[in-house]
Amino acid sequence: MTPAPLEIRSFAKINPALAVLGRRADGYHDIETVFQTIDLADRLEFRESDRIGLRAENLPGVAEEENLAWKAAAAFAARFAPGRGVALTLRKSIPTGAGLGGGSGNAAAVLLGLRRFWGVDAPDAALEEIAGALGSDVPFFLRGGTALGTGRGEILTPLPSPACAHLVVVHPGVHVPTGDAYRSLNLGLTSARRDHRIHRFCSRVKEGEPLPAEIFNDFETSILSAYPPIREAKEFLEARGAAAVLLSGSGSSVFGFFPSEESTLAATRETVRRPWRVFPARTLSRAEYFQSMFG
């Protein structure tokens, strides 16, 4: 029987805490970071097909086979449903290359969506294995909510979700290559040290403190000095009364926390600069993440 079409949401993330510990022998970097899902989302539609195909809206210049969503579908089918096809439609709202995990979230959403769409018995552990091969951030999006990420970010420890926080995300229209961001830190090989800031941050989250407490990002100093538009976006949010503003991931988006939904909407309405893209958002707990994905 042909499965009914399925439409789901694929969410973004922010990093309210990010420490880069050093470069690894394999060329990657060890990090300690806190991931937090937010309700800024793309949409994915699944329809039965005789092949794996992807139509991406608002994503020019990216070949089908280069898209993480397509790669996730191909990997899932090869493992659990050889010979089956699916027609995916991806409607992008999350800016690409913005430090918001849009592509990684798409890949995880495809894995979770195909398990439901095809009714396949795909264990969580198997999805995590596929996700880890697709990218360092992809495993987090299989869980959502709040989590500590270590290693390359793929080793996850769930954290209790803080109270809902309202924020504004600004993408200033510039791209920061991830390799350049890491090189700007000029780090040596990873030592055995741990970063006390992350552990203090996680302790406060576990104690129920709100997210803006002691947010930090090791990339911020070098990225803000090298990319004036990102610095201007941060200053814009600070001038509009954000309680705390931070670069997300290695950039180029920044986010600022506001006291209420009304204040985020007011800040969003004041933004007239181009090519800025500005989004009001709120944080999502793990339960809200899955309810909103499939709801």
> Which spans of ≥5 residues are poorly predicted at pLDDT below 50?
none
CATH topology of the largest domain: Ribosomal Protein S5, domain 2
Order of helices and strands: EEEHEHHHEEEHHEHHEEHEH
- What is the name of the CATH class of the largest domain? Alpha Beta
Sketch the major β-sheet. Answer: 7 strands, mixed
Class from helix and strand fractions: alpha+beta
Number of strands: 11
Rg from C-alpha positions? 19 Å
User: Which architecture of the largest domain does the CATH hierarchy give at level 2?
Assistant: 2-Layer Sandwich
Summarize model confidence as the mean pLDDT: 93
Number of domains: 2
N-C termini distance = 23 Å
Describe the global form: globular
Helix content: 25-40%
User: Beta-strand level of the residues, as a percent range?
Assistant: 25-35%
Number of helices: 10
Characterise the protein shown here.
The chain has helices at residues 68-80, 102-118, 124-134, 138-141, 178-183, 196-206, 220-226, 228-239, 261-269, 286-294; strands spanning 6-23, 29-49, 52-57, 85-91, 146-150, 155-159, 166-171, 216-217, 244-247, 254-258, 277-282. The chain is α+β, with helices and mostly antiparallel strands and 295 residues long. The protein folds into two domains: 6-159, Ribosomal Protein S5, domain 2 (2-Layer Sandwich); 166-282, GHMP kinase, C-terminal domain (Alpha-Beta Plaits), CATH 3.30.70.890. The strands form two sheets. Strands 1, 2, 3, 4, 5, 6 and 8 form a seven-stranded mixed beta sheet that branches. A four-stranded antiparallel beta sheet has the order 9-10-7-11, covered by helices on one side. Helix 7 (220-226) crosses helix 8 (228-239). The longest helix has 17 residues, at 102-118. The model has no long low-confidence stretch (mean pLDDT 93).
